[in-house]
Amino acid sequence: MIRSRLKRYLILLATSCSLAGAAVTGHAVESDGSRIRFDATEHDFGSIMDVSTYDTVFRFANTGVAPLVIEQVKAGCGCTTPALEKKVFAPGESSEIAVTFKPRGGGRQTKRITVFTNDPVEPTVTLSIKADITPFVTATPKMVRFQNARTGAGQQAVVRLEAIDPEFSIRRAYVTGLAAKYFGVQVLPRPEGITTGPRNVLVSLSPEAPWGMQYATLNLDVNGRPEPGGEPVSHTAKVTVNAKVSGTLSANATMFQVGIVEPGETFSKTVVLRHTQGKPFNVLGVAIDRGTVDDMRVEFMPAPDRDDSWLLVLTGTPARTEQAVRGEVEITTDVDGEEEISMRIGGMARAGSDRRAPATPRPAP
């Protein structure tokens, strides 16, 4: 009996010492190195309007025993700009990350900033800002699409503009972007006798717009008062404008959309080029202009069992993460008036993307 009790006591004592040692060891590991601690990781601006910029700060301290290195502070979008005066902080030192927010759009929004550090326990910290945004100007539609445009034939669309201030004025309307010269804009007058309320803007696609996708931005500079009797402000509303222009030839995709791909992974994207009248034609050559991936290339071949379609197969292997996959595919054909056509390439290489290989589209019937 005595021996049994003694044995139990020794086992309990050994277990207690082991647990205590583990706790001490765990504490030592946890406190070793740098540690970043934020006073708060979230800020809510509440209800705001998109005519101003808004600022806040995220205060932090290095509570560890080694220098803290902030390797990168990365915003999730272009409307959020973080700023940090330096990158290395001694143990016990405090500082702050300043964030400037320029709201766009409307409704409840959350924007995130990722902080990368040498903290061995928490190497990344996500900060967030939130706001309920009221747009000063609202455009309907928010995007103008000329989906079935034909070469040599122009098109028109109307954008309706409304503002918080019913007496707002449009100071200037203009188009910017790669294909700006193929779009026109005209501010239409209000109906006779009406001096307040919405305005209509006429957007035109030129008959000179070439084959392929054309992208631009409609900019509308307006003046008005966010509050009755308040100070007038100037604000620019932006509307995306694009056109898919086809002619004798048509493609089953607007561009070579590669998507997100793992660095070192070979991607493949197929586009089908078809004669809209069902007639045979030939692709004479294909080249890539301004490609950002060194081994990117396009193979072209007639579509199986069809003489009115060709397959264009884009492949490439990006070498590094955060590498843009861009370029222009220049296509030469024997079709009158469409001897030279082009399609854009779009994508991004990003580690951890877990991207599936894209399916090869079939020729349109």
Secondary-structure blueprint:
Blueprint: H1 2-31, E1 36-38, E2 42-49, E3 54-62, E4 68-75, E5 80-83, E6 88-89, E7 94-101, E8 107-117, E9 124-134, E10 137-140, E11 143-150, E12 155-163, E13 169-176, E14 183-188, E15 199-205, E16 212-224, E17 233-246, E18 249-251, E19 256-261, E20 267-275, E21 283-289, E22 297-302, E23 309-316, E24 323-333, E25 340-349
Parallel strand pairs: 2-9, 11-17, 19-25
Antiparallel strand pairs: 1-3, 3-7, 4-6, 4-8, 5-7, 8-9, 10-12, 12-15, 13-16, 14-15, 16-17, 18-20, 20-23, 21-24, 22-23, 24-25
Précis, in short:
With 365 residues, the protein is mainly beta. 8% of the residues lie in helices and 53% in strands.
**Proportion in β-strands:** over 45%
Number of domains: 3
- Main CATH class of the largest domain: Mainly Beta
Largest sheet: 5 strands, mixed
Cα-atom radius of gyration: 30 Å
Q: Could you please say which CATH topology of the largest domain applies here? A: Immunoglobulin-like
- For CATH, the homologous superfamily of the largest domain is named as Immunoglobulins
* Total DSSP helices: 1
| Mean of residue pLDDT values | 88
